[in-house]
Amino acid sequence: MPSILLTPPAAEPFSRADAKRFLRIEHETDDELIEALIASARREIELATRRVLVAQRWRIVLHRWPRSGRITSPVNPLKALEAVRVYDEAGAADAVDTAVFTLDTASVPALIDCSRLNIPAPGRSVAGIELDVSAGYGLPADVPEPFVQAIRLLVARSYESRDRVMPDALPHTVAALIAPFRVLSL
After folding, report:
1. Judging by beta carbons within 10 Å of its beta carbon (0-12, 13-18, 19+), is residue 52 exposed, middle or buried?
2. Domain spans, the chain
3. What is the distance between the alpha carbons of residues 26 and 13, in angstroms, rounded to a whole number?
4. What is the rounded distance in angstroms from the CA atom of residue 101 to the CA atom of residue 157?
5. Going along 1-159, which residue ranges are E strands?
6. Is the pLDDT of residue 57 over 90?
7. Once rounded to an integer, what is the mean pLDDT over residues 43-62?
């Protein structure tokens, strides 16, 4: 089930000023590079853990309602279900009241329960259902410290070795920091 980023984070969990202090940089020459490294490190951590760190809006696209009546969220931690649309054969969207869904946001991955609902089946066979959700820990200050430290270490590694090709694997220290937060799939 594809998920599409609708609204990226408004700010990063680790600021440029914090990165420059950590890297002991006093000039402005590399400011854009440092900001790009911070965003890249955040995305790398999000990909590795299957969690989004700072508040974001996403769209989950389904072809049909699951037989189990439960949708496993690909975006975690899930905060709210904001909108649900079902498309008919002509491609017109019909809104579904989000209040009829039950969210289990305590589980990771989160579950969206639609098993007791009488929701119409989509009229088109591909991308007939869209669920807009909000996810993330909230503001940058709400991001758990192990994630911030992992980003800090990735930014330092990338900045210090920007003229070399880096291995694809996460450094062991970073992997250990984020290990308790990984959302695994079977």
Report:
1. buried
2. 3-53+139-181, 56-135
3. 21
4. 44
5. 3-7, 56-62, 70-72, 78-87, 93-96, 102-104, 111-113, 129-135
6. yes
7. 95
Give the residues across from 86 on adjacent strands.
94, 129
Distances (CA, A) of 145 to 1, 58, 154: 30, 24, 14
Query: What pLDDT does 167 receive?
Result: 66
Whole-angstrom CA distances from 32 to 11, 141, 158 are 15, 22, 14
143-164 pLDDT per residue, tens: 999 999 999 999 999 888 876 6
- Of 132, 142, 109, 143, which is closest to residue 41 (Cα–Cα)? 143
Pick the CATH number of 3-53+139-181 from 1.10.8.60, 3.40.190.10, 1.10.10.10, 1.10.3230.30: 1.10.3230.30
Q: What is the mean pLDDT of the chain?
A: 91
Q: Which two tokens stand for residue 66?
A: 């699951």
Return the structure tokens found at 126.
């591909």
Of 19, 45, 16, 28, which is closest to residue 160 (Cα–Cα)? 19
